[in-house]
Specification:
Layout lengths: L2 H12 L17 E7 L3 E6 L4 E6 L13 E3 L12 E4 L2 E11 L9
Antiparallel strand pairs: 1-2, 2-3, 3-6, 4-5, 5-6
């Protein structure tokens, strides 16, 4: 009987901690400085304080890799960008699944 709780504790301790969901307030006041898409489902954002965030999308956003600009839809959270928001990319709505603080995006390799 004692072995089962110890096994559960060991399994629970092995899982890496999940980063806390972030929020970027006042998006309507140009608090996003720049963005860097990585593939079809990840966007790195930098705010005006030079903090980086990683937004993981719910699915592929087909126009994202070639996007020059993106819009944001924060209808469920006022003027705050969070995991209830969406990006608008060339007419496509791309829902944010997760938004967390992050290191800067990986460097792009030149072709």
């Amino acid at each position: 009987m004692l072995l089962l709780p110890l096994a559960l504790l060991a399994a629970a301790g092995a899982a890496p901690p999940q980063p806390e969901e972030a929020r970027i307030p006042f998006v309507g006041f140009r608090t996003i400085r720049t963005f860097h898409p990585v593939g079809y489902d990840i966007v790195y954002l930098q705010d005006t304080r030079r903090n980086w965030y990683r937004a993981t999308l719910s699915g592929p956003c087909l126009n994202l890799p070639d996007a020059i600009r993106i819009g944001v839809d924060t209808r469920f959270s006022g003027d705050t960008l969070d995991n209830t928001s969406s990006f608008l990319v060339d007419g496509q709505r791309c829902r944010i699944h997760s938004l967390v603080r992050s290191d800067p995006p990986p460097r792009r390799h030149r072709r």
